[in-house]
Amino acid sequence: MQLIPVTSSNLSQIGYDPDTMTMQIMFKNGSLYAYQNVEPDTYETMMSSGDPGRYFTEIIKPQRQRYIFTRVT
Predict the structure, then answer these.
(1) Of 5, 16, 44, 73, whose Cβ has the fewest other Cβ atoms within 10 Å?
(2) Is 69 helix (H, G, I), strand (E, B) or coil?
(3) Sheet holding 22-27, edge to edge
(4) In a structure prediction context, what are the per-residue pLDDT tens digits for the chain, which is 73 residues long?
């Protein structure tokens, strides 16, 4: 999955695979996480929000049961 650099205080890169509805997020500390069940419009809204880090914190992160995540090694 190709990761795209983003401007954010805590995120450095984001990637998305619409076939599997998986979004990967690389944090500034180097940790990489994969989030499942991310709809294409959710990803597009996050990327066009102007502040993907804030969108992640307010929309994705609180819905841990919906967007199941795992750390990618």
Answers:
(1) 73
(2) strand
(3) 4-5, 11-17, 22-27, 32-35, 69-72
(4) 999 999 998 999 999 999 999 999 999 999 999 999 999 999 999 999 999 999 999 999 999 999 999 999 7
Q: Which of 60, 58, 56, 42 is nearest to 13 (CA)?
A: 56
Buried residues in 51-68 as b, exposed as e (16+ CB within 10 A)? ebbebbeeebeeeeeebe
DSSP per-residue string spanning 2-60? --EE---SSEEEEEEETTTTEEEEEETTS-EEEE-S--HHHHHHHHHSS-HHHHIIIII
Chain CA centroid to CA 28, Å: 13
What is residue 64's DSSP assignment? T
Tokens 């450095």 -> residue: 12
